[in-house]
From TrEMBL:
Origin species: Chryseolinea serpens
Matching SMART domains: PKD (SM00089)
Domain PKD positions: 1037-1074
Location of the active site: 172 (charge relay system), 242 (charge relay system), 401 (charge relay system)
Sequence similarity: Belongs to the peptidase S8 family.
This protein's name: Por secretion system C-terminal sorting domain-containing protein
Signal peptide from the UniProt entry: 1-20
Keywords (A to Z) from UniProt: Hydrolase, Protease, Serine protease, Signal
InterPro entries: Ig-like_fold (IPR013783), Ig_7 (IPR044023), Peptidase_S8/S53_dom (IPR000209), Peptidase_S8/S53_dom_sf (IPR036852), Peptidase_S8_His-AS (IPR022398), Peptidase_S8_Ser-AS (IPR023828), Peptidase_S8_subtilisin-like (IPR050131), Peptidase_S8_subtilisin-rel (IPR015500)
GO annotation, biological process: proteolysis
Pfam families in the cross-refs: Ig_7, Peptidase_S8, PKD_4, Por_Secre_tail
Length: 1179
């Protein structure tokens, strides 16, 4: 299955993007059509796991929770039954934490989500997103069920007809359950007779053939007590018949003399219904939670879950649910890629652990409606599909909706033959065995329709590795993130889901982009066992980023895997962003390289995370304003007519350092007030400071150093931050105020509320504050920003002292913003000033003011306190170290640069024996606040630990580099005295390393194993004429695999194949032999296919020695008389006089005057027959 990838690395400056990757991004500015009114999904924090299980506990909760109708995603009875079936093992997902909450539909979705987050009970809150069926009506009249032949279902049915124990869950609109081609295929729960009782204890009554989650009336869905009914049959057709059509493709009755044949043959079907009976028959959106249906079928016997529906919104909760049904419950999720003819991810198809299916037609051409892209795993027929329809009939339709169940039916056949496969192995087997000739018909969609078109007959017998890359890391040599113009190393985890690979497995990195140059593109991954994993830690890919690489745009790269007959690919991309997230404590926000905060693109609120506290998005816009007047003003906030000013450009790259120089993590860079340094008059360097530990967890400090790069002074200079916050009711219920004691400008809800307080604090002197009512029409309002924010208003905002410190209606509040600034200053030419702010968020105003006190303390006292001095120490491997600090009278020692409790107090610290370089930290604790912590480095010398460049288990002919850490002397038992040695023979390798200064030595050892390689030598039959079978015979290797390439495009996996060449010529035949120990050998031989006349003069022409390393070569052609010998060089030039011989037995040919190279010898007999051979001169 194609993995959805994402690259993570320090700073997250440059990252690979997986199509469909999801993250916790709170919904904002939602389109009401994209979600179900009055319904949210929640994931509880683990410590509140039982709050909905007790009425008394629920009664004590805030009103937002107390008034909601909570429904678990899976009932406790079903959870217990599933856990019993799974046995005593840890689950990947604790499904008991997930609930659906129904609330008043008239309420704002944004507000309700914010209220839930404010309670502190929930880890994630999301709307219940709508999804739609993926059917594209088509009334064409063509042959019935062409797709069975295309996917080779008939050949597959000769191998297996499936198994009734394999159940396919049809999570859809419901089904025509009495359809003659479906009725016999229904899964009937034997533990649930129709007697009005819940016999199987799952919380549903008489649900022996599925469940209707939508019921008769759409208006009842989500109301208290509504759970649906036990009849998933549909009352009418059109889009109501979608589930019936889907089911026919997957599992219609086969070999029953009527109707059609489902791909799954004997497989059974289990329906859930998500259309209400009273919905319009052309409504494409489901009225109930399809993910509930997914969980239902997963806990009621289904092995395969078909999802022929989707939506454009990604959900972290939905991803968790899919992980649960796949990794915990053992189900395969198959989903339609979408019908919009775009390269845009659709969900659930684009989630991890889902087999995503695109559509093709009867000619293997991509269906015109089908989505495509890197998230697609496989393609299957989806145009003009003849299948079951409502009211016991049949019809033709099209869509990826029908491609998915065709693959689901194929998965059922495969699982019946190989019941021990995991869901991901089933997906990978279907994917890797698909027919890649699909791309012959679709050259414009290369690598974007999955591995190929479904070939179920091949899937049943095909044996191959299937390698997928994950956990990408792109960094420079020093481990920091790269920027444009940098060289970088690219690392992956490589997992093999299927058959073990051989020692010859390679992966190649390539790209069609002109913005990267790949300098190390091929890695040998070696033998990876089934479900094994390797990491290219010691052998990264290497690439260079162009200085002109685009910002915030994906750069596509391709991984290509090769191992004999195994060929595969994985399509990825990475992005050079113009921004970096700060997310180390309770606040998540973003700094952009051009000075904006929250969003690099405020117009669309994209390219950034905004400002998030307790998973609530609270910011509309934040940026920088500075200058000396309205005519000398530089800013990047809103302007007039809905536009935004941007007077700054990046001057140095933005980067993240963890740990930072003064805090846990820091983002730094610089921007200037002109497009280039020559025309700029200001250079603004910035740095964020953030701490994880209490009491610093609720603020982020932003420090700016503004340098005058012009020739004249800036007089009366002010600099500030402008922010438009949305705390309560999308900002409409907010107030703005000022706390003089902490120099904190803050925004808070006007009415009593669980919404937080946010603010900007001036940590420097000369504070300026201006509170703004955004609506200019408010009586008495000096100005607002709805009608634009002029330069005059901006300068007024940062230079008016503390003349307007309140905004927002005192009773109800309104939409407000504010500016917090410092000034005036004089900045002479070449000089600089530093101004610092703190961004705060807290549960209420009092806590925000307390947080501001801590920010002031840490910035103006802790960071300025004298730091201790401590010398670095060197010790022998395994010895203890004595560290001594000076510069204070009291010292605290820590394991980390920030946070944690002291591990020791006092000036001296003695460590236990150390085996690796170690860093401890010491602070000046003379006062009630501590200083920054000074790192104390202990360098361990004579560290003998041996590292291997690859696995020390080799195949003959391979080598491994053994290395140790730097020391003064190295003594290997091989006699070598270097830091690294390369070895290729089996044995135990010992090393002793020595440090001369400390006079210490330490030993280590590693064992290298070498496995034998098979012989790849082969012979071929003598008759080498066109149209005549040539027999190829290799040296026999027991339990080996063979992969032949005959030089004319043909291949074979037989041990001793026969091959017919159709045309004259010289071909290169190659053989790759893979032994049962996964070692591999390769050999090649040229073969000349000759005419019958050539064949008539035999096949015994020889030359020895050949290659020629002497002056004379002996030509032997037994029984040939009066033959003429002619010699040509590689350019076809006649280089030797013709010789006419007597008998051609060991005829000496003097080649002493010819240079090294490849030559062609032609022998022509008296009868006119000729024969050629190559002679290589190599002296």
């Amino acid at each position: 299955m194609q993995a959805r990838l994402a690259t993570t690395f320090l700073g997250v400056l440059l990252f690979l993007c997986a199509q469909g990757q999801t993250g916790k991004v709170p919904p904002q500015h939602l389109d009401p059509a994209s979600y179900v009114a009055g319904s949210v999904w929640v994931k509880l924090k683990p410590q509140y796991k039982g709050i909905f299980e007790s009425k008394s506990a629920t009664a004590r909760m805030p009103a937002a929770v107390r008034s909601a109708q909570a429904q678990p995603f899976v009932s406790q009875a079903v959870q217990q039954r599933s856990q019993g079936r799974l046995g005593p093992r840890k689950l990947n997902v604790d499904i008991s934490l997930y609930y659906q909450l129904a609330f008043d539909k008239s309420r704002s979705m944004d507000d309700y989500i914010e209220e839930l987050y404010a309670t502190g009970y929930f880890e994630t809150v999301e709307p219940e997103y709508t999804v739609s069926s993926l059917m594209t009506p088509n009334d064409a009249s063509i042959g019935q069920q062409y797709y069975l032949q295309v996917i080779r279902a008939y050949e597959a049915w000769d191998v297996t007809q499936g198994d009734e124990s394999i159940v396919i869950g049809i999570v859809d609109s419901g089904g025509d359950l009495d359809h003659p081609d479906l009725q016999s295929q229904l899964y009937i729960d034997p533990a649930e007779p129709l007697d009005g009782l819940d016999n199987n204890g799952d919380g549903y009554i008489d649900n022996n053939r599925g469940w209707d989650f939508s019921g008769a009336k759409a208006s009842l869905v989500g109301t208290p007590g509504f759970i649906g009914d036990n009849d998933p049959s549909v009352p009418k057709g059109n889009l109501f018949g979608h589930g019936t059509m889907v089911a026919g493709c997957a599992g219609a009755a086969t070999n029953n003399s009527i109707g059609i044949a489902g791909v799954g043959f004997k497989s059974k079907l289990l329906f859930t219904k998500h259309y209400s009976d009273d919905q319009p028959d052309n409504a494409s959106s489901y009225s109930s939670n399809t993910y509930f249906g997914m969980l239902y079928v997963a806990t009621h016997g289904a092995k395969i879950i078909n999802c022929s529906w989707g939506g454009s919104n990604a959900s972290s909760i939905a991803q968790d649910l899919i992980n649960h049904v796949t990794l915990d419950l053992g189900c395969l999720v198959v989903a339609a890629a979408g019908n919009s003819n775009v390269e845009t991810p659709l969900y659930p198809a684009a989630y991890d652990n889902v087999l995503s299916v695109a559509a093709s037609d009867e000619n293997d051409v991509r269906s015109t409606f089908s989505n495509f892209g890197g998230t697609v795993d496989i393609t299957a027929p989806g145009s003009n599909i003849y299948t079951t329809i409502f009211d016991n009939s049949y019809g033709i339709d099209g869509g990826t909706s029908f491609s998915a169940p065709i693959v689901s039916g194929a998965a059922a056949l495969l699982w019946a033959v190989n019941p021990s496969l995991t869901p991901l192995q089933v997906a990978e087997q279907l994917r890797i065995s698909s027919d890649a000739t699909l791309y012959d018909k679709n050259p414009g969609y290369l690598n974007k329709l999955g591995k190929g078109r479904l070939d179920i007959a091949n899937a049943l017998t095909f044996q191959s590795p299937s390698i997928r890359a994950s956990k990408q890391l792109l960094v420079k040599d020093d481990g920091t993130p790269p920027d444009r113009g940098d060289d970088a190393n690219l690392y992956f985890d490589f997992t093999n889901y299927l058959k073990a690979s051989s020692s010859g497995l390679t992966v190649t990195l390539s790209s069609s982009s002109t913005f990267i140059t790949i300098t190390q593109d091929v890695l040998n991954l070696g033998s990876i066992p089934e479900n094994g994993k390797v990491h290219n830690t010691n052998t990264p890919f290497k690439l260079s980023l162009s200085p002109t690489a685009p910002i915030d745009q994906p750069i596509e790269i391709l991984l290509t895997f090769k191992d004999g007959a195994y060929e595969d690919f994985q399509l990825l991309n990475f992005v050079v962003p113009s921004f970096i997230d700060i997310n180390e404590n309770n606040i998540t926000t973003t700094l952009s390289s051009a000075g904006r905060i929250g969003f690099s693109n405020p117009e669309s609120q994209t390219n950034g995370s905004g400002f998030i506290y307790n998973d609530r998005s609270l910011l509309y816009e934040m940026g920088v304003i500075m200058g000396t007047s309205s005519s000398v003003l530089f800013n990047n906030v809103r302007a007039l007519s809905g536009q935004y000013d941007q007077d700054f450009t990046p001057a140095t790259k933005i980067m993240k350092s963890t740990p930072g120089t003064r805090s846990y993590s820091e983002v730094s860079g610089a921007f200037q007030n002109a497009p280039d340094a020559a025309s700029a008059s200001l250079l603004i360097s910035y740095r964020s400071l953030v701490w994880k530990n209490v009491p610093y967890q609720n603020f982020v400090i932003l420090e700016y150093t503004i340098k005058n790069t012009a020739a004249t002074a800036f007089n009366g200079f002010y600099m500030g931050l402008y922010a438009d916050w949305d705390v309560e009711n999308s900002g409409a219920g907010d107030r703005a105020s000022w706390d003089a004691g902490t120099r904190l400008g803050y925004i808070y809800p006007a009415l009593p509320s669980t919404s937080p307080t946010v603010g900007i604090q001036m940590l420097s002197t000369k504070p300026q504050y201006y509170a703004i009512d955004n609506d200019q029409s408010i009586v008495g309002n000096p100005f607002g920003v709805y009608d634009g924010y002029t330069d005059a208003e901006k300068f007024l905002s940062i230079s008016s002292g503390l003349t307007k410190t309140q905004a927002g209606d005192p009773t109800t509040g309104n939409d407000v913003s504010h500016a917090v600034a410092s000034g005036p200053y004089t900045i002479n030419a070449g000089q600089a000033i530093t101004i610092a702010f703190a961004l705060h968020a807290a549960g209420n105003t009092a806590d925000a003011i307390t947080s501001a006190k801590y920010a002031d303390s840490v910035y103006n006292y802790t960071l300025k306190a004298p730091v201790p001095t401590v010398a670095d120490v060197e010790v022998c491997y395994g010895s203890s170290a004595l560290l001594h600090a000076t510069g204070a009278t009291k010292f605290n020692w820590y394991k980390d640069f920030t946070g944690g409790e002291p591990v020791h107090t006092g000036s001296d610290l003695s460590t236990p024996g150390l085996f690796n370089d170690t860093v401890l930290y010491v602070s000046n604790a003379n006062k009630s606040y501590e200083s920054l912590r000074t790192p104390a480095h202990v360098f361990v010398k004579s560290n003998p630990t041996i590292t291997a460049s690859r696995s020390p288990i080799l195949c003959e002919g391979e080598s491994v580099t053994l290395s140790v850490n730097a020391a003064d002397e190295y003594t290997w038992n091989t006699g070598e005295k270097t830091q690294s040695i390369e070895v290729s023979t089996a044995g135990t390798y010992n090393v002793v390393v020595r440090d001369n200064a400390l006079n210490c030595t330490s030993p280590d050892a590693i064992t290298v194993t070498v496995k034998p390689v098979p012989s790849a030598a082969f012979t071929m039959s003598d008759d080498l004429t066109p149209g005549t079978p040539v027999q190829f015979t290799p040296d026999h290797t027991p339990d080996a695999e063979w992969f032949w390439e005959f030089g004319d495009g043909a291949e074979s996996n037989d041990e001793s194949p026969m091959h017919v060449y159709d045309a004259l010529g010289t071909y290169t035949v190659s053989l790759i032999v893979t032994a049962s120990n996964y070692c591999q050998s390769t050999s090649t031989q040229p073969i000349d296919i000759i005419t019958n006349a050539e064949h008539g003069i035999g096949n015994q022409l020889t030359a020895h020695p050949n290659p020629v390393n002497t002056a004379v070569v002996q030509i032997n052609y037994p029984g040939r008389e009066n033959a003429t010998l002619t010699l040509f060089n590689a350019q076809g030039q006649h280089v030797l006089d013709d010789y006419t011989t007597g008998k051609l037995n060991d005829y000496p040919l003097n080649l002493s005057r010819l240079a090294n190279g490849v030559y062609t010898l032609t022998v022509t007999t008296a009868t006119g027959a000729s024969r050629t051979m190559k002679i290589v001169i190599l002296r």
